[in-house]
Protein 1
Amino acid sequence: MNSSRAVSPLLPIAALTFAIVHIAFEHFNGGVKTHHFLARADLPGFSNWLGLAILPLVGMVLAVRVRSAQGAQKGSLLPPSIFIPVAGSLVYGAVLAASFHFGAEQVSLAAFIGLFLCALALPVYRVEYMFGFILGMTFTFGSAIPLVFALVFATLSFFLRGAAVMLMSAIRSRRM
């Protein structure tokens, strides 16, 4: 097996391992948490047990994406076009989660508003962005709520960036 292809099958396994460690830690430290939207008990709640399904599934989709990117960038274990978005969105998600957890409301608000700018500037609809974001927020919010936010911002990003491309195309065609 070519070493550059070895990372793809390991992504869902690593995601499942991360989810198991997270659930085990919570189980032995007071019980597995349930998170509610807007931290209100009257809104729907999602157990962290869902992370055992969510993280490996998103990891599998990312593995497929890595496989296709490896075809374009030969010899790379995890191509920079995948690694940089995963790492960046992981850090972004972790900063947002940590600022919320530690009560840094200004940082949380700025990071949340920054998500709208990121959705405009970056193709956050790609799975590498979503995977890192979900992973970065898992310890604070579980996996389900970050998945919902990632899907909302992915949809926003897809349509805004598509509209921008169409607008730029229309402007270019009128100039010629």
Protein 2
Amino acid sequence: MLALSTFSTISAQQASVGPVDSFNPKAYRIGERLTYDVSFSQFISAAYIELQVAARGTFFGRDAIQLRAHAETTGVVNVALLALNNDYTSYVDPGSGLPFRAQEVVRQSGRASDVTSDYNQGAASTQSSGSGEFVGTYDLLSAIYRVRAMSLTAGASYLLSVRHENQEYQAEIKVLGHELIKTKMGSFNAIVVRLNAKNSELDDNRTQIYFSDDDLHIPVLVRIKHSAGEIRAELAASDVRTAPAPRPSPSPVSPTPTVTIRATSPDAGPTRSDLPFKVGEKLNYLVYLPGVNQPVGTALYEVKARGRYFDHEGFLLSARLQTTPAIGRLFTANDQVTSYVDPVSLLPFRTEMVLVEGNRRANRICSVDQDRGSAVENGARIEIPVGTHDLLSLVYAVRTFELSPAKRNAISILVDKRPVTLFITSQRRETIDLGGQKLPAILLTLTTDDPVSDKYQFRAWVSDDFRRLPLRFTAMTELGLVRADLAITPVTPQ
């Protein structure tokens, strides 16, 4: 799915009708970064793509512009359909847009590959062959910027040649006309382009790309009519970060890019030194009901990655909760929650929920502006206190609190589209039995500012050490006391 949307956004070369020698350098604004939300069928948030003009300088002995991109699936699509996490880098000639070196780092479903390609072509390769088709080949990333640099004259057809994974694709871009479209970034007067790529999954005229009708030709929307459902890549953010001027040097050097598209290292960017968890941490829980010996559900909490998401540095947290066959005949659930949180405050700036409970299906996306104290969930605006957590970020934030008895902490959380104040009171130290192990723990009571503050009798036990691992949760429900126990826990203190 993401390959299709990426391919449609990332295909370009030259024209067979109209001014084939057109080249607009404004398409290569140093520091420009474009972020796209990708939806697929009923999945509102299936992936995201970031494109960036990272730097201009001397690379591999040539004056060049460095282009970067990142593409990654998210939420339930990442878990159940396609786990994709790719990075692309391309070095192009500033006068022609032709690449001379390209790198693809592909991480898909647990497999990884790093491929570097050298293109033996210079600026002269962009000249027309005389038949309306330009000589020269583009990689996926450099192609999109080259098509932006074209005139995109109404009625023109452009012949494309793009190499991907050692295969070359011939495609045609047909400029259909103009249209006013609406996106998350606002309304745009757009140039509508149809893409048809021979010998590929796009060989059926089902892909349309909408470029801004100005000198920049920013791709603001991509639509692909796929047999499994429509794929949409929609512009979600656009900004230009000015790079500092390079210092004079007596000889050419290869500068380090001033801005990177994504930091995948857990230590990238500012962070806290006192966090009790690291990227890669997984916490597995077994859920029990009274009178049922077998677990009726499981829960998996993960700190999946540290990087740049939706124009923010942050941690990617996820939780998956599902029922087991023990109660499968009575009720089934399979919920996926994803939270993107600030690496210092752990406050969320985006929450995604895919809820499957019995016959109920719900997709929710909540974007949070912590600076202004507001949130937007599925189009509805919600006023919240500055510093409000979601239910997933709450689990990790509490682990950073001072929890020595009888400390009481208060925190704002967003529940069912309204802010609620949660009070976390450290009651006492206890030793609990977990999987046959005796573990020192701190008992916490969780109450709210609702009229019935302890309605569900939420209790939590966290490990009495630096990690503050949530060892056990309990809550009173209509079925009785529900208990969730950590399935794997360290034997020795850490």
Protein 3
Amino acid sequence: MLPFNSKLLKGNMKHFFYLRFLLATVVLFFSFSMQAQVCTGSLGDPVVNITFDSLNGASPYVPTSGYTFQSADCPNDGFYTIINSSYSCYSNTWHNVTKDHSGKGKFMLVNASFEPGDFFVTTVTNLCPNTTYEFSAWILNIMIPSNSIKPDLVFSIEKPDGTFLATYDSGEIPVTSSPEWKKYGLLFTTPADNATIVLRIRNNSPGGYGNDLALDDIGFRPCGGKVTATIQGSSDTVNICEGNTTQYTLSGDASSVYQSPVYQWQTSTDEGSTWQNIPGATTTSYLRLPTMQPGKYWYRFTVIDAAYAGITSCSIASNIVSINVHPLPVVDAGPDRVYIQGYPVTISASASGEDITYYWSPPLYITNDSSLNPVVTPPVDMLYTLHVQSAFNCNSKDEMQVKAVAGLFIPNAFTPNGDGLNDRWNISFLDIGFDADVKIFNRWGNIIYHVSGATVSWDGMVNNIPQPSGTYIFIVKFKDKSLPEIKGTLTLIR
């Protein structure tokens, strides 16, 4: 961001040094200037796909003679950085850019230099002969609306010796009232000999106030006739629940420009990062059988002319259709409980899932039927069901019972002789909500049994040693101090 008069001086110098480049390419320049020639059919997988997302430093595609990497939120003139957002640069004369073109990664932020410089250079081999390719990038003028120099980029395709095969001038990239990514590029048909080519994107404007930009998603990929995929009777995206057994028929359609088409259906389970051929799915129709495992299942229909069937990179792919299998909500209504009159029970339930909602049934004697922890006071035994539904209408439910009793019953004797009758000393209806502390003492005052906040059930053993017949003392204390301590005796009979 240098003064405007410096910009004019350096701008003239830049045009002087760049004159030979313009004269050498004038014929091609006029044939591709201004009008972006991006693919209007369908694209194949990219041979070059520069998203910048994985870079934590300089781009390997920027030559040392071009721009210089700078680890800064707002790079200086002649420098660039790789970043996922940009804020408050140069007294807010740059747009605040909150995300890259795709909305989920990084982009290249450039503060243009005064002399021509390359943003991007790479060499490509092993292309498909006599095949149309799209060379493109997404560009954003970083300047806010003002009287500033506008970026002007040249895309070129060259032989390794520098001979131009095709070139395209973006023209002035306009300022916008808010950040606006736009795709620029050209189409190029590879020669029959499938020669090695060089791809280049170069700055074509004088530096100074303005001429600053962001680049993202630089790609070079085959372009062919329109190829489409649909899910019969459904939209391009279907959301179903785990366990759904519906079968779906996928249909593909390819333009008549493919004289000897070879078809292949492919699937991806990592949201398009990788694709795998579906064995045997080589016609325009594919029957998709149920998939019980939750996940995102993406599908596409690919076409390649028979002459190049052995070169997978020559395939042209359709739009993506997806069948998303959503997991059922996880629900736990909590343990069964005991309601003693006068002492309300708070249910301890849990539920999780994709943007879930839930409710209890029946909505009787319950403080809030849409809470996971309602308070209940049923006068009779009641079975409560917790119903949970996700945002995709996937449903689960679980039950718990609340037993209504008049009070605690503490037996004063038991017979642990293995006959199946009264073999254990239990305190019935001692709800876990009371958080009771229960101890049993022998005649010498030693604690031989102790539980706290858990079910009371003693088998008459201590360390697997049967205790003798006789009288023992028990004490029940409650966390809620308003509940009186209970003390008594119990008889062990053998």
Protein 4
Amino acid sequence: MKTRPSLAALLCGTALIALTGLAQAQASAPGAATPGIDKRQARQEQRIDQGTASGSLTQHETNKLERQQAHIDHVEDKAKADGSVTKKERAHLHNMQDRASARIHKNKHDRQHRPNAQ
């Protein structure tokens, strides 16, 4: 004799499947993906690390640049929070990255060096 699952068990199972699907859909929402922004952010962080290692960035400059990168990450996270990054939000992020890139270049080439850098 086979036993049938109760209606409550079926509803719980169905709700769990629906919630899992919803969570996956939100996590992979195409409007929230920012691979170009993420790639550029990673590259700028590499530039800061290289400048720190070479001594072309002072500790103060490095700290300021890293705070700026953290702020950009925070703004990006806020933009993604609703599951979609609008054109205006993307433009704002690109503008922030442009300013950060210019600041990295300026600080790396301003003839200030960290003492005892290799």
